[in-house]
Amino acid sequence: MPVVIRHAEPGDIEAIKAIYDQPTIFANTLQLPYQPVASWQRLFNAGGGFYNLVAEMEGKVVGQLGLQVCQNPRRRHVAELGMGVLEEFQGQGVGSALLRAALEMADNWLNIRRMELTVYSSNEVAIALYERFGFEVEAELADFAFQYGNYVSALIMARINSGSV
């Protein structure tokens, strides 16, 4: 099944919420469980420099990636990203397709030199994905977030645009 990447539309809010309602997704992001649909409206009101991509397979939204270009004039060459993929579609190339599209847009159209992200140290699958796309660990943050009653560490990863995706 081919993965189609496109910009998210307001009609995608329910599907995006469904992605982040899954336990393995909210556990590996800073999202909280049981968020109302209205809270996801912020993705469509994020202002300048935010790009909201979704991945579709057979017409169903199965993944989402948010790319935020830093608005500070001295960091406009930097963007941050976060993403999630429906559990039953993980391992099928959805995350790779989203990441590839985001990096192509950042490198070739947004003039982004540095892409940053934060990932929990225990999320080995995500770390491996990011490393395949040229991200490198720059730092580990101890007790970064609270997850399932414990504090967990996170990694700061970054990719410098080398001129090719």
Question: How much helicity do the residues have?
Answer: 10-25%
Oligomer: single chain
| Element pattern in H and E | EHHEEEHEHEE
User: What is the CA–CA distance across the termini?
Assistant: 23 Å
State the total count of DSSP E strands: 7
- Please list the strands of the largest sheet in the order they lie side by side: 1-2-3-4-5-7-6
In short:
By secondary structure, the chain is an alpha+beta fold. The protein has four helices and seven strands, in the order E-H-H-E-E-E-H-E-H-E-E.
Q: What features would you describe in this structure?
A:
With 165 residues, the protein is α+β, with helices and mostly antiparallel strands. 22% of the residues lie in helices and 36% in strands. The chain has helices at 13-20, 23-27, 94-108, 124-132, and strands at 4-7, 50-57, 60-69, 78-85, 114-120, 136-147, 150-160. The protein has a seven-stranded mixed sheet, with helices on both faces. The radius of gyration is 15 Å and the shape is globular. The model has no long low-confidence stretch (mean pLDDT 92).
Which labels suit this protein?
165 residues, alpha+beta, seven-stranded mixed sheet, 4 helices, globular
Task: Please specify the SSE layout and strand pairing.
Elements: E1 4-7, H1 13-20, H2 23-27, E2 50-57, E3 60-69, E4 78-85, H3 94-108, E5 114-120, H4 124-132, E6 136-147, E7 150-160
Parallel strand pairs: 4-5
Antiparallel strand pairs: 1-2, 2-3, 3-4, 5-7, 6-7
